[in-house]
Each structure stands twice: as structure tokens, then as C-alpha cells.
Write a structure and sequence with these properties.
45% of the residues lie in helices and 14% in strands. By secondary structure, the chain is α/β, with parallel strands linked by helices. The chain folds into two domains: 211 residues, Rossmann fold; 102 residues, Uridine Diphospho-n-acetylenolpyruvylglucosamine Reductase, domain 3 (2-Layer Sandwich). The protein has a six-stranded mixed beta sheet with strand order 3-2-1-4-6-5, with helices on both faces. Strands 7-8-11-10-9 form a five-stranded antiparallel beta sheet. The longest helix is centred in the middle third of the chain and has 30 residues.
């Protein structure tokens, strides 16, 4: 990174688009605002800011909002400031504070009259997210962690979400701000070890750095690899699924039931057409078939379905609850029922 600059990924922006920077007042978002203010002419973008006060930290949160408004006024950048009630949503929806804050924040973003919202997720955020996903046993789509650009959920009804700082470390952010003589706000909740991310940040990551001082970029690279893998498999599944996943159920006299619309209540996979595929492709096909019914399969659930097909991978310990005999059935979480016939594995929602 050149001295006095942040190595933003400018390729994520489109010439002529209107971009709002999500500014909390913390170091990362303040640095992003300043860096984009410096480069807006070169990038060809219109720039504004948005601040969401979550109603969690009382006077401290109000002081953050005042700081952001003053900063934007000094920079001559228009700003939208909104207050949301995270505690009320937590009570109503039984979500975690983090989930509720994120949902309400993105609802604010969706109402903005802009083309994109830039958020200040850094390489450190990416590494922490990968590690949290690993701890939960995520598939590769989960290990992709924070995507540089999001155009679907949670922003499908509003502007796309742009993360140009995923290659910038938190240390680089603070060095950039100090070189500019720019202050920022510290969120006291970032020190609370009651939150999983904070425990990963303050306890787990420092420990891992003892084994690998470059653990942060290493984990960020895992995310890049995982996203590329997912992009590849998306193309493969678009090719494989139409020929392998059959809608509806067989009917007498040949043919299948009329449940052929996307999201229909039943699909089937012909086992002999699944057999020649690699284990990785078999897993993807079964997970894709279940996803078409609105169900997400875990690793163990996918392994059980493969066992019902008589195609369990190496290392799979026989499960007495799983049979590959015709007529065998298995009920999985999410209301998914699997049934083995002589030729097919049939999946349906119950």
C-alpha cells in the first residue's frame, strides 16, 4: 500500500453510480469515507454517507451519530442518519443483537436512493468470519464468507452492497487515519467477550498468530478460494441438475406427477445416473435437489442420503437408521422426507 493511501478495490465501482458509504464512526468506516472522498473523481462516482444509530448504547450511540454528521459536514458529503430500535426487534423476533442490528441496518440501506452502499469490512473481518464459519462446520459457500459485492439478499430490494476494503488490514486502516490526523470513535461493545466475534477477535486470533503470524491474510485467501470453488460449482450444477433431478413422482403407466413447477413438493434422483459422478458432485447434486425444495442439508444429512443410495463415501460409518433397501424412508430436519425406491431416491416436503 502506498504511503497515505488505502488499497481499495476500485474495480467494484461503476462509473456514474451513486454510492453511499455506511459510516458508523469507527476507524474502518471513517477511513473508507475519506479514501472514497479522495478517489470519487477518479472512480467517477457520486458520494454520500449513511449512518444508522441502533438504539443500543444510549448516549454513546448518540455521540457517534453527532461525530458522523460533523465529519460529513466538514467533508461536504451529504449524509442520511436514521435511528432504529434493535432491542425491540430482538424482543419481537428472538434474534441475537448482531442479527437484529444487521437486518435493520440493511433495511435502511434498501430505502436509500442510491445505486450502491459501500461498507467497510476489512481483511481482519474476513479472516474472523472464515474462522467463525469453520467453527460451525460450514460448507465451501460458507467459507466464502464476506463477498466483495452482494446483489441478492440482503440487498435484493435495494442498492447493491460493495466491500472495497477486504484487502486492507485493520492496522493499515489505523495507520492511514493517524497519518491524516483523523480521529474516530470506539464502540465499547467491541470489547465485550459476550459476543462470539469479539471472542474470536480478541482471544482466538492472537493465539493463532503465535502459530502463523500471517493467519489473517491466510484465512482471507481461504475465502477467495472458496468463492471461486462456488462459482465453478454453480456452473456445473446448472448443467447437471436438469438431467439428474426429476420433478414430481412416478405415476402408473409411465411419466411423472404434475408437480413440475420450481419449488414443487417432490423431486427424485435416479441412482444409476448419480453413481458415475465423483463424491463431490454427488453431494452437490443431492444438496441442490434439497435446496429446490427449500431445505438446507448438513454434511451428516447429505451423507445419510448418499448411504440411502448405496453410495456412501469412504470413512462413512454404517448408521443403523439408514437403509439402502427399496421402501426405506428417512425423515430429516426442515420437514424433508427421503424415500428409497428400486431406482430412485425421492425427496419431498412434509
Amino acid at each position: 500500500m502506498a504511503e497515505g493511501a488505502l488499497n481499495l478495490n476500485g474495480s467494484l465501482f461503476r462509473v456514474g453510480e451513486r454510492v453511499a458509504v455506511g459510516v458508523s464512526g469507527g476507524a474502518d468506516s471513517v477511513a473508507l469515507l475519506l479514501a472514497l472522498a479522495d478517489r470519487r473523481a477518479d472512480l467517477g462516482i457520486g458520494l454520500s454517507a449513511v449512518h444508522v444509530e441502533h438504539g443500543i448504547r444510549g448516549a454513546e450511540g448518540e455521540a457517534d451519530a453527532a461525530f458522523v454528521l460533523q465529519l460529513c459536514e466538514r467533508l461536504g458529503i451529504p449524509v442520511t442518519a436514521e435511528r432504529v430500535d434493535v432491542p425491540a426487534r430482538v424482543e419481537q423476533e428472538k434474534e441475537s443483537i448482531e442479527e437484529a442490528a444487521r437486518t435493520l441496518r440493511y433495511q435502511v440501506f434498501s430505502r436509500l436512493d442510491v445505486d450502491g452502499v459501500a461498507t467497510a469490512h476489512t481483511q481482519d473481518d474476513q479472516a474472523e468470519t472464515v474462522l467463525m464459519k469453520l467453527l460451525r462446520g460450514a460448507w465451501t459457500e460458507g467459507l466464502g464468507a464476506i463477498s466483495p459485492v452482494v446483489t441478492g439478499k440482503p440487498s435484493e430490494l435495494g442498492p447493491r452492497i460493495i466491500r472495497p476494503m477486504l484487502g486492507v488490514s485493520r492496522a493499515e486502516v489505523e495507520a492511514f487515519l493517524r497519518a491524516r490526523g483523523q480521529e474516530w470513535r470506539e464502540d465499547s461493545t467491541n470489547r465485550s467477550l459476550d459476543l462470539t466475534r469479539n471472542r474470536v477477535r480478541h482471544e482466538v486470533m492472537p493465539l493463532l498468530r503465535q502459530f502463523n503470524p500471517q493467519i489473517t491474510p491466510a484465512l482471507a485467501q481461504v475465502a477467495e478460494l472458496a468463492r471461486a470453488e462456488e462459482e465453478f460449482w454453480a456452473g456445473e450444477l446448472a448443467r447437471l441438475l436438469p438431467g439428474l433431478v426429476l420433478p414430481g413422482t412416478p405415476v402408473r403407466g409411465g411419466g411423472r406427477s404434475s408437480e413440475t413447477a420450481p419449488g414443487a413438493g417432490a423431486v427424485a434422483v435416479e441412482i444409476e445416473r448419480l453413481r458415475p459422478l465423483s463424491l463431490a458432485a454427488r453431494r452437490r447434486v443431492l444438496r441442490g435437489a434439497a435446496a429446490g425444495l427449500g431445505c438446507r442439508l448438513s454434511f451428516v444429512e447429505t451423507a445419510k442420503l448418499l448411504a440411502m443410495c448405496g453410495l456412501a463415501g469412504e470413512g462413512w460409518a454404517p448408521d443403523p437408521t439408514v437403509s439402502a433397501k427399496p421402501g426405506a424412508q428417512l425423515h430429516l430436519p426442515g420437514g424433508l422426507r427421503a424415500r428409497r425406491t428400486a431406482r430412485e431416491l425421492q425427496l419431498s416436503r412434509i
